[in-house]
Amino acid sequence: MTTATKVPVKPLGDRIVVQPLEAEQTTASGLVIPDTAKEKPQEGRVLAVGPGNWDEDGEKRIPLDVSEGDIVLYSKYGGTEVKYNGEEYLVLSARDVLAIIEK
C-alpha cells in the first residue's frame, strides 16, 4: 500500500479529503474512451480525515471508519469539488463513502 500524500487541506468533523482516481482510458476490448464520454469517477484515495463528530453527550469524538491512504468508493454526486494549489480534491462527508476497496 502506498502512503497518502500530505495535503494542505485539513477536514473538520466527519469530513474526508479524497483525490479522485482517473477512470479507465480504454474499454476491455481496447477502445479508447474520449473525455466527453467518461463517467465521473467514484473511486479515490483518502488524503486526509477529520477528527469525527462528537457523541450525543458532547464528551468524546466518534472516529471515522476510513483512514488516510484507503481507496474508497463514494456517491456519484456526493461531496464538494475543491481546487487548491493547482490540485483537485473532493471533500466528502463520511456518509458519502460507500465502501473501502481492499487491494
End-to-end C-alpha gap: 8 Å
For the record, the CATH architecture stands as Roll
C-alpha Rg (nearest Å): 15 Å
Q: Strand order across the biggest sheet?
A: 4-5-1-2-3-6
* Low-pLDDT segments, ≥5 res: none
Subunit structure: Heptamer of 7 subunits arranged in a ring. Interacts with the chaperonin GroEL.
GO molecular function: ATP binding; metal ion binding; protein folding chaperone; protein-folding chaperone binding; unfolded protein binding
GO cellular component, one term: cytoplasm
Organism: Nonomuraea wenchangensis
Overall description:
GO terms for molecular function: ATP binding; metal ion binding; protein folding chaperone; protein-folding chaperone binding; unfolded protein binding. It holds the Pfam family Cpn10. Its main location: cytoplasm. Heptamer of 7 subunits arranged in a ring. Interacts with the chaperonin GroEL. Belongs to the GroES chaperonin family. The protein is mainly β and 103 residues long. It has a single domain (15-22, 33-100), classed as Roll (10 Kd Chaperonin, Protein Cpn10, Chain O). 0% of the residues lie in helices and 33% in strands. It has no helices and 6 strands. The chain has strands at 15-20, 43-49, 71-74, 80-84, 87-93, 97-101. The protein has a 6-stranded antiparallel β-sheet, with no helix packed on it. A hairpin with a 2-residue loop joins strand 4 (80-84) and strand 5. The radius of gyration is 15 Å and the shape is elongated. It starts with 14 loop residues before the first strand and ends with a strand. The model has no long low-confidence stretch (mean pLDDT 83).
